[in-house]
Write a structure and sequence with these properties.
Helices cover about 40% and strands about 15% of the residues. It is of the alpha/beta class. Helix 3 (about 75-85) links the parallel strand 2 and strand 3 (about 95).
Length: about 230
């Protein structure tokens, strides 16, 4: 990871993606009951290991973006906050946002942007769907991808509301890349790539320079305003 920081700097990159690793993940479910302090100890150790790496990326001028992902200790908002607190709100501790991972957790992926937009520096455009039924739900029942209730899908074939996502990123001034990440158990990858590139192109929003109702593009005129109010 130290070499990756140097490589990113040499390539003049400003963001670098990684996974957090998983010490606590095998114990994510509440039963069997976890020993008191087990999760806290895991996150303390995780932060201890990552702090010098984050410092190295800071020296390189590169944001380290954790892909928040089930299977890693940083898999939702709460776990990211637990880690962020332990690394002292490190400025290089940031997020790669991928809504598909949140669909499969039944997490509000739009509100996630509202909460963490200051820390989101990378964006995977990937679709997913969750259709729980009487036989299986979010845990998948050890089934193959095509037989799971939750599946990654080619862009536009799943349930992710990308129009709202792109609108929120435009609202918050996100200036990073919208990166196609394709995973689908049904569609051919070449079709997914062709359709996905066009899908992203069609969703990118050119942000306006002024409000739609500022037709006169005028500033404040105190005298005129007082005259209109009769004062």
């Amino acid at each position: 990871m130290m070499l990756a920081a140097k490589a990113s700097k040499n390539m003049k990159l400003t963001e670098h993606v990684t996974f957090s690793g998983a010490l606590a993940w095998p114990y994510f479910y509440l039963w069997p009951q976890r020993p008191a302090g087990l999760v806290e100890t895991a996150f303390d150790e995780l932060a201890k290991r990552w702090r010098p790496i984050l410092d190295a990326f800071d020296d390189a001028g590169v944001n380290l973006c954790y892909e928040v992902y089930p299977g890693e200790d940083l898999h939702d908002g709460v776990t990211f906050e637990m880690f962020l607190e332990r690394v002292g709100d490190h400025p290089r501790c940031n997020i790669l946002y991928d809504p598909s991972h949140f669909v499969l957790q039944s997490l509000d992926y739009l509100q996630y942007i509202d909460i963490y937009h200051d820390r989101i520096k990378m964006f995977h455009v990937k679709d997913a769907e969750l259709h729980p039924n009487g036989r299986t739900g979010v845990y998948g029942g050890y089934q193959s991808w095509i037989n799971r209730a939750g599946r990654f899908r080619s862009l536009g074939d799943g349930q992710v509301d990308f129009r709202s996502i792109f609108s929120k990123f435009a609202h918050y001034g996100f200036d990073g890349w919208a990166v196609l990440e394709w995973e689908c158990c049904i569609k051919h990858p070449e079709e997914g790539a062709r359709e996905g590139a066009q899908f992203i192109r069609d969703h990118i929003i050119r942000v306006t320079e002024k409000a739609f109702d500022d037709f006169a593009a005028g500033g404040a005129d105190r005298i005129a305003n007082r005259r209109m109010l009769g004062i």
